[in-house]
Amino acid sequence: MIENFGNWxxxxxxxxxxxxxxxxxxxxxxxxxxxxxxxxxxxxxxxxCLDAAAALSLALGxxxxxVQYASLLLDTYPHHGQALARRCxxxxxxxxxxxxRDDLSLLxxxxxxxxxxxxxxxxxxxxxxxxxxxxxxxxxxxxTITE
Length: 147
Hints:
The chain has 8 helices and no strands. The chain is mostly helical.
């Protein structure tokens, strides 16, 4: 826990996390992820940092990393909506359609209609990143997932 790491206090941790968020807002995702990974070295189970790392990994086009971070978060918080939505999107980008379906189903059962709708939108956005020859098939599969 951060409380037991040298001179670091929860306030220090929060300030550094806020800096990473500001970098993210400026589109500097790589720098933001570097900071978040440093914070995860101090507090490996921090839910905010794991979720941020998953989001930043997606922004950087690293879906396998996003799956890893989201899965770590879901190990502790299995109904974390954002983590389910991010892992669902990352799995789609990786062509892991069954895993994407499973995450979408878990998200729907978690009871957050808003997060479920957001995940469906993320899946639609993710499908547009897929290369053109496979796009038609991916979109057909996406419709199947979200119905």
